[in-house]
Amino acid sequence: MKRTDLYTLLAAFALIIGMACRTADLLADKPTPAPTQPPVTKSTSAVPVATPTIAPAIPTIAQPSAVAASPTSPVAAPPPSVCANPNAAITAPAMNGTISGLIEIRGTAANPNMQYWKVEYRPDSSSTYSELNHSDTAVTDGVLARWSTKTVPNGVYRVRLVVVQKDGNFGTPCEIKLTISN
Length: 182
What we know:
By secondary structure, the chain is an alpha+beta fold. Helices cover 14% and strands 33% of the residues. A hairpin with an 8-residue loop joins β7 and β8.
């Protein structure tokens, strides 16, 4: 084996180990629940039966309600937003939801005259917002921000989405209230 091949192999191995450690760090924010499997039935036929495998669970957001896909529909419709403006809408997590760990804030931030949008949060007891994310690229039914709730104390928080137009004006921000319980 050539020395360059050995270095390439070692570099690939180090990259894989690094990615595994990063994944473990992200998943360590919240204990992974034990996977559930359907009951196993005994087969009396001579044909081997495949055993289903279940991927490891990823921390999820506890929400008061969820929209599920129907058996005939491959993709679920996005959950409705509590905000009236379809150009500035947070669809997940749900209003008054309880969250923990690493979460995704999803929704739509789009406007033909948009300069940029931003996602901010504040404790319910404060009037000062901190920025989670901003961009000048429109997002339609996608990830607006990722938030590790381990970075703030437990409690009630407000999260808002503001879409700022090129003239500096903005409509009513979309704001939701969440409880962090790590």
